[in-house]
């Protein structure tokens, strides 16, 4: 685990978009980023969850966030173009993008892979992230320096039996990061992945129903890597696959 200790104002004046900000790791990252001075844009599927995170941030006295309700499964390229325009109008540019939202889908033997579920997982975990990034890159290039973080998994670095489309999507995520990081090399935009490792969230409980959640790290405990990659401390880190644990 990274021993990085973020200073209080390390994200001051930065605007950071977090996907899947209503629950789990995304919720914790959004609140941590706000706590360190960032204005966060909370993107997610369930508006009520986003509003709860919004209230938590405002009540704590951190910079007022923004909410973007969007289901990545049904989102179109135009949705992302419109979102980029709105962010440009309100904030001028975007300093950070944490691609955190993803879906686990059904785990099981390869022969049981269902085409519709495979398409749905790839849409949310890969296609949506690629097209959103494409739309946001122009306003990220306007930032003094910008950080894009994709969220990977252990099964996106080494294949594991029965992890099906989720694992394929995480390998694709690593590939997307490498392609974009190489294109951005030497520019003001840096691109990396984080593998959070086993973390106490709903997704983990769904994947390992028999596991005692108390044996797992909390989302809060894995935040140093998330803070490091968003802060200017990581300005020279590009194309890296990091582990949060
Ligand atoms: P959770 O399932 O707890 O939270 C996922 C978040 O993503 C939720 O806020 C959810 O919104 C949102 N989301 C899911 N689908 C969509 C969609 N179609 N459109 C918009 N938002 C969506 O997951 P975790 O916090 O555990 O995982 C976060 C990331 O970390 C994921 O990329 C996951 O693959 C990765 N990861 C997690 C590990 C772990 O042990 N927890 C281990 C390795 C990787 P809503 O609540 O509204 O459905």
UniProtKB/TrEMBL annotation:
Give the signal sequence positions.
none
Q: Which residues cross the membrane?
A: none
Query: Which UniProt keyword terms apply here?
Result: Oxidoreductase
Q: Name one GO molecular function term.
A: oxidoreductase activity
Q: Which family does it belong to?
A: Belongs to the short-chain dehydrogenases/reductases (SDR) family.
NCBIfam families from the entry?
Answer: PRK08945.1
Which PANTHER family does the entry mention? ALCOHOL DEHYDROGENASE
Under what name is this protein listed? YciK family oxidoreductase
Q: What is the originating organism of this protein?
A: Shewanella algicola
């Amino acid at each position: 685990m990274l021993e990085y200790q973020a200073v209080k104002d390390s994200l001051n004046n930065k605007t950071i978009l977090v996907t899947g900000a209503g629950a789990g790791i995304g919720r914790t990252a959004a609140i941590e980023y706000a706590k360190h001075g960032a204005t966060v844009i909370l993107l997610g599927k369930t508006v009520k969850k986003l509003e709860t995170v919004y209230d938590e941030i405002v009540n704590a006295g951190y910079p007022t966030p923004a909410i973007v309700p969007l289901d990545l499964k049904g989102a179109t390229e135009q949705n992302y173009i419109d979102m980029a325009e709105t962010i440009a109008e309100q904030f001028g540019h975007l300093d950070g993008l944490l691609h955190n939202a993803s879906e686990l889908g059904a785990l099981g033997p390869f022969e049981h892979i269902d085409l519709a579920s495979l398409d749905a997982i790839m849409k949310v975990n890969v296609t949506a992230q690629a097209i959103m990034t494409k739309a946001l890159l122009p306003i990220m290039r306007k930032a003094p320096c910008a950080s894009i973080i994709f969220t990977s998994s252990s099964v996106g670095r080494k294949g594991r039996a029965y992890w099906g489309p989720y694992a394929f999507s995480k390998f694709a995520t690593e590939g997307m990061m490498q392609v974009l990081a190489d294109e951005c090399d030497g520019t003001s935009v840096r691109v990396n992945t984080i593998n959070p490792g086993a973390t106490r969230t709903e997704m983990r409980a769904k994947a390992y129903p028999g596991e005692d959640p108390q044996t797992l790290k909390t989302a809060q405990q894995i935040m140093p890597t998330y803070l490091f990659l968003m802060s200017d401390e990581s300005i020279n880190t590009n194309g890296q696959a990091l582990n949060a644990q």
